[in-house]
Amino acid sequence: MNIHEYQAKQIFQKYGVPTPRGIVANTPDEAVKAAQELGGDIWVVKAQIHAGGRGLGGGVKLAKSTDEVRELASEILGMTLVTHQTGPEGKLVQKVYIEEGADIQDELYLGVVLDRAKEMPVIMASTEGGMEIEKVAEESPEKIIKVAVDPAIGFQGFHGRELVFGLGITDKNEQKKLIDFASKLYKVYMDTDAEMIEINPLIKTGSGDFLALDGKMGFDDSALYRHPEIEEMRDISEEDPDEREASQYGLSYVALDGEIGCMVNGAGLAMGTMDTINYMGGTPANFLDVGGSANAETVAKGFEIILKNPKVKAIFVNIFGGIVRCDRIANGILEATKKVDVNVPVVVRLDGTNAAEAAEILKNANIDNVIAATDLADGAKKAVEAAKGA
Fold first, then answer.
1. Is 109 annotated as catalytic?
2. Backbone dihedral region for residue 12 (phi beyond 0: left; psi -120 to 50: alpha; all else: beta)
3. Domains 1-20+103-239 and 21-101 alike in fold
4. Digit-coded pLDDT (tens) for 349-359
5. Which superfamily does 21-101 belong to?
6. Among 109, 186, 189, 249, which one carries the catalytic annotation?
7. What is the distance of C-alpha 268 from the center of its chain?
8. Angle between helix 172-191 and 157-166 (nearest 10)
9. Structurally, what CATH architecture does the domain formed by 241-387 represent?
């Protein structure tokens, strides 16, 4: 689950992570009121969407009067903001964050992510604040400092020193402030079961203080039951409606850009299935894990969601019956053909628990566009051929 910048900063503030003052607004009038409440003579009007690159897309603008705050808020609210992370369709801006101006002397990057290879959180920092970190990693990887923190010992002084020395910060007072900042950010990450925290840019002010000028946070969905106050921050208007609908039925679904719909049980097998489709010359249209408790209803719902995508030209059902029984999946396929117009070829590979019974169910159903496959490679090859009209 992701949250907005203003929500991330609310969490930062609870942990003493310094941020500029700001107020969220839903209308131009609220934006003006927020600017007046904040005081000063310069404000930043920021679009609130779940995506980075808002500034480059025209979603972050500077205002030097309350009239300009109103004008900019009117422009940004209701706009479809397109960034490198939204895709060409963009996202509708429904909120803006009015923030006080800041004395920016330098811009850095600071983030905390999980490194699955190291099996521990990694604090990432760079002198290239304000730039896309992916671009920095590609063009100047030496400018990214990575400090792994073993959760068994937590953030220690030597972690902080590695960060400040890597960033080239020599002033003792500034070193102390940044180490304290990073220590608090690590605590936020661990305490909230976050998957990712990104501050880009982290600014140094003229007085040598460090402020989170931006803030992005993503959380482990499986841990949200421990954090009801964070789950309340969920903005479902920012989420893909098909992914949201799938989750209500216990399905893990992610839309992709290909033409072969995938229905698989188990995340590992699902990834392997997509890789094999690519190897055979096709492109997957989605990731869909039906899980171990799939039944006819959830399988039918999976078909319904997959077929909402007009790009889908074939479906590959690849099930290994361990926890989930193959006959359940077969009955789900039959149920789907009754509820949904399955107008594309469906390649089915079922193996494991009750596979023979499942094959008999599908055979007796006599459905014209269901194609049997013997194994993963055979199924992927037949799905690619079906999608190409072979």
1. yes
2. alpha
3. no
4. 888 888 888 88
5. ATP-grasp fold, A domain (3.30.1490.20)
6. 109
7. 19
8. 120
9. 3-Layer(aba) Sandwich (3.40)
Please confirm, yes or no, whether 6 is among the known catalytic residues: no
SS3 387: helix
Give the total residue count for the chain.
390
When pLDDT is averaged across residues 104-116 and rounded to a whole number, the result is 95
Instruction: State the average pLDDT over residues 202-224.
Output: 94
Phi/psi of residue 269, nearest 5 degrees: -65, -35
**Buried/exposed 246-271: b ≥16 CB within 10 Å, e otherwise:** beebebbbebbebbbbbbbbbeebbe
d(CA 357, CA 120): 44
Calculate ∠ Cα 237-45-233, nearest 5°.
Answer: 35
**Angle 33-6-110 from CA coordinates, rounded to 5°:** 135
Q: What is the pLDDT of residues 68-98, one digit of tens each?
A: 999 999 999 999 998 888 878 889 999 999 9
Buried-exposed string 124-160: b where 16+ CB fall within 10 A, e elsewhere: bbbbbbebbbeebeeeeeebbbbbebeeeeebeeebb
CATH of 1-20+103-239, one of 3.30.870.10, 3.30.470.20, 3.40.1160.10, 3.40.720.10: 3.30.470.20
Taken in order 246, 247, 251, 255, is the CA torsion positive or negative? positive
What integer pLDDT is reported at residue 292 of this predicted model?
65
Q: Of residues 198, 259, 304, 335, which has the active-site annotation?
A: 198
Instruction: Report which listed range, 36-45, 50-59, 132-141, 334-343, is most confident.
Output: 36-45
Both tokens of 280, joined, read: 């055979």
- Domain residue ranges in the chain: 1-20+103-239, 21-101, 241-387
Euclidean distance between CA atoms 390 and 384, whole angstroms: 9
Nearest to 100 by CA among 28, 22, 36, 10: 22
